[in-house]
Amino acid sequence: MSGQHELLRSLPAVDRVLRADVLQDLVSRLPQEILTSSAQQAVADLRKRILAGAEVSAEQLDPVSVANAAVAFCQPYLQPSLRKVINATGTLLHTNLGRAPLSKEALDTIQTISEGYSTLEIDMDTGQRGHRYSHVRRLLTHLTGAEDALVVNNNAGAVLLALTALGKGSEAIVSRGELVEIGGAFRIPEVMEAGGLKLREVGSSNRTHLRDYEGAISEETKILLKVHTSNYRIIGFTSDVPAAELKPLAEKKNLILMEDLGSGMLIDLTKFGLPYEPTVAETVKAGVDVITFSGDKLLGGPQAGIVVGRKDLLQKIGKHPLARALRIDKLTLAALESTLRLYLQPEQVVERLPIMRMFNATPEEQQTRCQRLLDRLQAEGLPISLQLVEDFAQVGGGSMPQIQLPGWGVEIKPDTASVDALGRRLRNFIPAVVPRVQNDSLLINMRAVAEEEELLLAQLLIAAIRGEA
Ligand SMILES: *Cc1c(COP(=O)(O)O)cnc(C)c1O
Description:
Elements: H1 4-9, H2 14-18, H3 21-24, H4 32-51, H5 63-78, E1 85-88, H6 104-114, H7 134-144, E2 148-152, H8 155-167, E3 171-175, E4 181-182, E5 186-187, H9 188-194, E6 198-202, H10 210-216, E7 221-227, H11 243-252, E8 256-262, H12 280-285, E9 290-294, E10 305-309, H13 311-319, H14 321-325, H15 330-342, H16 346-352, H17 354-360, H18 363-378, E11 384-393, E12 405-414, H19 419-428, E13 432-438, E14 441-445, H20 454-465
Parallel strand pairs: 1-13, 3-6, 3-7, 7-8, 8-9
Antiparallel strand pairs: 2-10, 4-5, 9-10, 11-12, 12-14, 13-14
The structure holds pyridoxal-5'-phosphate (PLP).
């Protein structure tokens, strides 16, 4: 065909595009406006390409081809956007993939509580109005040794709430080495500003001493804040002041000692080969008055921000209007209560909490699983080369960045197909598969892949490599 004019005149009418079978088949699934606007977009795209001088064949101008293009615009409405992912990245608490997977117990509780009504805010002894936090308060105080506890939407909210409720209009002292930024634009100095506190920085980035805190205290000081430097480490000539050493100073000057633990562990994880970090209970014991931590990091529960500490301070925090604004919903509460319950018997945590199972997996188990995947792929005679390689997993979620969990991976190098195209196909599946890309290959790390996902993972990889969409 020749001539822009002629091409433009041959563009099919939107009505004709809409009558094509592929779009008619969608009439029962999508509202008419979406079908119409998709057909309009497909025609408009073609017009734009003609005006840009692109080669357009007669076949591309056929109403059926244009309708096929229109179906692509309908796709976002046809499949859920938030969908399941098989996490083959080896990053266990991957923030972009939803952090900690929940236990079976937590999932069952979410279902039971959310399909009907619940005791969310009713005191079953008196029949009167009760408290939403009461469902986890006893568990949290038992597990941490703190006097009181409350829970909000996430840890960023917990920090903001605690600082605002306790320190608005006054000054908080923080070590320069702890002025952290956590992924997703959570910066301690900005949180303080939002909470109406004045930030007083002390020490240098690598070294802060007790005398630095002491020298900075003024009439306006109300809080000494410690922040876990979750996602980075300063290595070498460093020193910071542990909470236990700050405690006498806080007491002497009548200040609140607060610590944002970030991940906040309820049990000692050194038995999994992870480095020693003080547990929440040890932090309480060290005398910290208010402690905040996340529910969906190393705890292995739902997204939540947990605050534990002194009763008088927790009551003040709980009464602040922000506490209402940041309150936790019943689904989260259901999941959190059943996750915390597992910690009552720490030995069962390893079997029941997916995140602990992942930590506990040995390199030998990893190797067996990777070999199984490799054999499955090998048997298909696909145009790829396969290799079992030593590989490390990461904790993720900004926790323990220096830790490498040893194991294995399967490296898939396509003979001709591009790794990018392969990755895109995998992301479009339901469930989607997210591997790591390195050395022009896909790297599959099995540590965060559940056993029951193994076979499906192999099938999806095979389909993607064969070019099946
Ligand atoms: C992760 C983290 C936060 C933010 O917690 P969210 O639950 O993601 O809101 C705050 N402080 C520290 C030290 C963290 O590691």
